[in-house]
């Protein structure tokens, strides 16, 4: 989606009034119109999310965590296909299972068998509206999967 942005650059200019000898401050501004690509939505990371990084013992675990955060969909759904992860990261199924288990213990994700929900108190994906966030947080509080 393209959104038109209007920006104004304000510059405070100092001038000397020749008649009175006083210093006069003049706000000189320039209006600019520019078109920009606006992706829409936003992503929020809460401080608790950084605790998940602290439990990572290797670069591989950090890369897997980063991939998971990039693939969180609206509704806080994460699909983790262990075969794809094994191929992408060049590791065993057991390694992927251990990392997923570690993230589950850290309460970053919940679920099993490929479909997980991410913790809405740690990470909010793009294009999440306030109602989706509130519903997901209430669901997470109740302990539903």
Please explain how this structure is put together.
The chain has 145 residues and is α+β, with helices and mostly antiparallel strands. The protein is built from 5 helices and 7 strands; from the N terminus they run E-E-E-H-H-E-H-H-E-E-E-H. The chain has helices spanning 49-55, 59-70, 82-89, 93-105, 130-142; strands spanning 2-16, 23-37, 44-45, 77-79, 109-112, 115-118, 123-124. The protein has a 3-stranded antiparallel sheet. The chain has a two-stranded antiparallel sheet with strand order 1-2. A hairpin with a 6-residue loop joins strand 1 (2-16) and strand 2 (23-37). The longest helix has 13 residues, at 93-105.
What is the typical, i.e. mean, pLDDT?
79
Which H/E pattern describes the elements? EEEHHEHHEEEH
According to DSSP, the number of beta strands is 7
The residue ranges in which pLDDT falls below 50 over 5 or more consecutive positions are 35-41
What structural class do helix, strand and pairing data support?
A: alpha+beta
- In this structure, how is the largest beta sheet organized? 3 strands, antiparallel
Q: What is the global morphology?
A: elongated
| Strand percent estimate | 25-35%
Identify the strand order in the major beta sheet. Answer: 4-6-5
How big is the Rg? 24 Å
Q: In whole angstroms, how far apart are the ends?
A: 34 Å
Helicity level: 25-40%
Number of helices: 5
